[in-house]
Amino acid sequence: MTDHELIWRIAGGSGDGIASTSQNFAKALMRAGLHVFTHRHYPSRIRGGHTYTEVRAAADPVRSRGDGFNCLLALGDSFARNPQEDAYYDNEEVKPLAENLDELNEGGVIVYDTGLLDVDEIPNFEERVEKNDWHVYPLNLREIARDHGREVMRNTAGVGATAALLGIDLQYFEELMAEAMPEEILEPNVEILHYTHDMVTEEFDFTHDLQVPQGSHNEEQVLLSGSDTIAYGAIDEGCRFIAGYPMTPWTEVFTIMSQALPELGGISEQVEDEIAAAALALGASHAGVKAMSGSSGGGFALMSEPLGLAEMAETPVVLVEAMRTGPSTGLPTKPEQGDLEHVLYTSQGDSNRVVLAPGTVAEAYEQSRLAFQLAYGYNIPVILLYDQKLGGELMNVPASHFDRDPNPDLGAVTTEEELEDAPHGPGGKFHRYRYDAEDGVSPRSIPGQKGGRFLVTGNEHNEAGHIDEDPTNRVTQMERRMAKLDGVREFLDERSTQTHMGPDEAEYGLITFGSQQGTVAEAVKRLNDAGHSVKGIGVSDMMPYPEAEMTAFLESVDEALVVEMNASGQFRGLTQKELGRFGGKLSSLLKYNGEPFEPAEVVSGFEASIEGQDVPDQQTTYIPAAGD
Amino acid sequence: MSAFSAIGEDREVDREEFTPTLEPQATWCPGCGDFGVLKALKQSMPEVGRNPDEVLLVTGIGCSGKLNSYFESYGYHSIHGRSLPIARAAKLANPDVEVIAAGGDGDGYGIGGNHFMHTARENHDMTYIVFNNEIFGLTKGQTSPTSPKGHKSKTQPHGSAKDPVRPLSLALTSGASYVARTAAVNPNQAKKILTEAMQHDGFAHVDFLTQCPTWNKDARQYVPYIDVNDNDDYDFDPADKGDAERMATEAERSLYEGEVLTGRFYVDSERPSYQEEKQAIGEMPEEPLAERYFDDDYEWERTHDVFLDRHK
After folding, report:
1. Is the reported ipTM for this assembly greater than 0.95?
2. Structural domain of residue A503, as residue ranges?
3. Over the stretch A491-507, which tens digit does the pLDDT of each residue have?
4. Do B21 and A313 touch (CB under 8 A)?
């Protein structure tokens, strides 16, 4: 990766179109030949409140947010409240500028809307500009937008100004606008884009060095979020039924599926609560349709009982869990990885489920497909665990990644022909839960199939499904169901779902799970470039745990730092529980302030850990290994 | 060709087909009203012309939840209060299957009350039988949502301070298009009502009075019963919602005064079922979704072809 990169941050208020403007900006740069990655920050509010999105762009692949950023487009917050500096939530009017200065790198570029932002309201602004060698371009974007169209078009003016300052060809923006906007809106927007671009070029002497990187793609790219790829993976596995209840950030997957399924002759159901949502997915699956549901932490808590029923009844289902900050309502729009233990163990009895945590946008597609293959192949519930970060971040992926055959196979089911020869009980019921099933997987019949009737029950049951409290039956059925996880483990081992980073041999290890993978990968590279001997692993299989692979990894290093976004080191705990050792080798780098790690935080956390010091940054926490 | 050849099979069906040939010993107490539901259900099946392999009976938890242990069909004994969301999704997945949900009054009007309201509101084409014994039976006699005010039990030692749930009115208000009450003590009416309920194209709610001689009333306390559709003292039109509401309110009140009013309270044959509503707006396929997975000729769509362009 070259050092030359653009990290452009657009800041404003919720409801000001920051998300859509940044999405177009990222897409424009992708079309211009760059690799892009976005990071978004928004409050739990509809109108007003500081929000920003960062677009990181470089000629080489980018898989993480960067360290700080180098270009700020500060728009006003048109729904700001509390204009007083001493207000409880501070002066919201200036937040799009004031809140972002701490993370703006030295030499950075600032464009701000003088129509809505008054720098006199920001303490020590001029001194900070000078000290950090920032290059400031004040523009009355609001007025420009109003004069040439409507005030809401000031985002376009800001993009035009940015393009002029950074040397981005306007054609990419124009094309995107033409694809999305009706004529009457398109015309003034194009005018504003050009007007601002030309005006900035003419009126300012550029003092900054920052320019957009130059790059090219050798194959067609698409810009997708983790929510997109989870939904698309489900669709390509033949999922045609979803039931859900809105909750941030899971709502994104639910929305994408709800818009896609009617086009595909599928069914989406928004229902009364998450208990119903999960139960509907079970009902549809039982009746012979590939089905899913999902939620975020609080809603997923309500799904605990249907989840347990799916384990006992062996009704296949895929549930997705989009983590946000907890406990309780927490920080509703911010990411965390604090629900790992929740999804592993919630519901009564011994867990009998698969939990996968994809690490990237591309992996989310793979593992969404894998989730359905496992659920329907093994008649077991599968949980796809991700978070607000992975769900909302956009990155470019080659279009060819998705050029694959669909797989609507219902997995371990019988056909009517098979039912004719299948074992039935003396009462005529099909033996749905056979003691002698291979790998523990006993195929199911589907209601309406002749000769297939059987009883499902959440009670312990015999081969035909009848309630049975006999101890030998109990042990046999428990062992059969638990054995399915051994089969799943073998299946996963053949597919290497973990991601290895850095050299094969190294002194130290960095371990992470789920969405922090790209950031840790970047940290591993930087650490090796700086002379450290470090390798990394991004783990996706939470249950069944990749015991052999992790044992080999941990045996090969002297010490390992586990990087995760929660306060109690849940993945480190899982690793120690599953492997039963390595407690003296494993330390933790934790972050739970509602923001994902930056690569530099992992680098400095690692360096502090090997020197046995505490991390320098108050926003992250270092927990030493047992016995240290 | 259907992958589900039991559906619509053209043959005579005998009620005995619904009796498991190796019948598990019923866990219900002698004199329990639940036997009445089982019998009426078996008798009504030949009337609606359904065979055991095309019926899905989804139950909740409680004595009533054991219904599908003694009834030969596809069965789904689910969890407490959640029979309806499982049942209605199965109906959406394959509308050709005859879907029946059943549970007790605690299951349906208490813990599952939210689902009851919403399933009725959506008017799924299915039958919901609530075993209403005005008590929690399997957990040994606690006050239930339909127990009368003042009802004393081990968990309500000073008597319930709550008015009971009014299930018929609740079903009507929520949007059920068929609302009836019958009783285990009246097997002829029960059979007729269950038959009608299954034949009805919409959500049919049957509040089935099932005496619990062990923890609550015995059968004698549901006698005499009055069929409001067949009694000159009650002049009302079940097709008229206003009439139905008044009649339902009276039946709910009088039950606690020792008068058992049963019959069809509301029959709306005009309201489209949820399936029809969804199909009308293009959100549900005309062919049962479940069939697609067994159709080797179906061309499954790929996101690469359908959705990727918008991300380029």
Report:
1. yes
2. 499-623
3. 999 998 999 999 999 99
4. no
